[in-house]
Write a structure and sequence with these properties.
With 243 residues, the protein is of the alpha+beta class. The chain is built from 9 helices and 6 strands; from the N terminus they run ααααβαββαβααββα.
């Protein structure tokens, strides 16, 4: 089911039936209302703190001097400075300059869930389940689909606050994103040759629902949950299919 206009407005994205794939998100047009340059070092990013404390999973991204990262900076930096919008998706290429892949349509019950913010909570067990899905990379390694919590942090929470597993976890925000593309590096087998074959790359990308929530006094935690898992665990919990 295609996204409705009311959903697009709610999420602030431009979704459609022929959605591109292989990007950070599915945003094609971005309107910037603030053009003043700011010092990024003064901006607080909760995720950075969570990574340092081994709360959220870490990934190895392309190096700063790699062709992929240089292309990303051009599309998200230079092009924005010149034209006021990102180049991602507008020329049929993703944020690294490789071909987009058609993500297809997102089921209406998923878009409705995101728009209506339902269910408003998840159980601790459900949180653990949506945090768990992985893919097998081209060279045989196991990789999560995107943002998520470390097993060490989950075990620490259970040990320090055993009663937390019986308490519902409020979901603060949720939105639809493409699965994380930055970690899909050569080291894991995602070569330029593979990136240039959209049909082959389909196996390693999917729509995800990114969920933001607080847990045990730690705020702004995020998990990227593939839409199939999101449906099975949160929308149809009586028919859970474990990955």
């Amino acid at each position: 089911m295609k996204f409705k206009n009311r959903t697009q407005k709610k999420l602030g994205h431009s979704y459609g039936g022929n959605s591109p794939r292989g990007s950070i998100s599915n945003t094609k047009k971005v309107t910037y209302v603030e053009t003043k340059m700011i010092d990024v070092s003064k901006v607080h990013f909760p995720e950075d703190e969570h990574l340092k404390k081994n709360i959220m999973r870490k990934y190895e991204n392309p190096t700063d001097d790699s062709p992929r990262w240089k292309e990303y900076k051009k599309r998200y930096g230079i092009y924005v400075k010149l034209y006021g919008e990102t180049l991602d998706g507008q020329d049929g290429l993703n944020c690294f300059g490789f071909p987009h892949i058609n993500l297809g349509e997102v089921d209406k019950k998923i878009s409705d869930s995101v728009e209506n913010e339902t269910p408003p909570t998840m159980s601790f067990e459900q949180m653990v389940e949506i945090n768990s899905p992985t893919m097998i990379t081209p060279n045989g390694q196991e990789l999560h689909w995107g943002h998520g919590l470390t097993n060490d942090f989950i075990e620490k929470v259970q040990k320090e606050s055993p009663s937390i597993i019986d308490k519902p976890i409020p979901i603060d925000m949720r939105w639809i994103e493409n699965s994380h593309v930055f970690p899909l590096t050569d080291k894991l087998g995602f070569t330029d040759e593979l990136w240039n074959e959209p049909e082959l790359m389909e196996e390693y990308m999917c729509w995800c629902v990114r969920i933001r929530f607080d847990l045990n006094g730690v705020s702004s935690l995020t998990i990227d949950c593939p839409v199939d898992t999101y449906t099975n665990v949160l929308l149809e919990p009586d028919t859970i299919i474990l990955n």
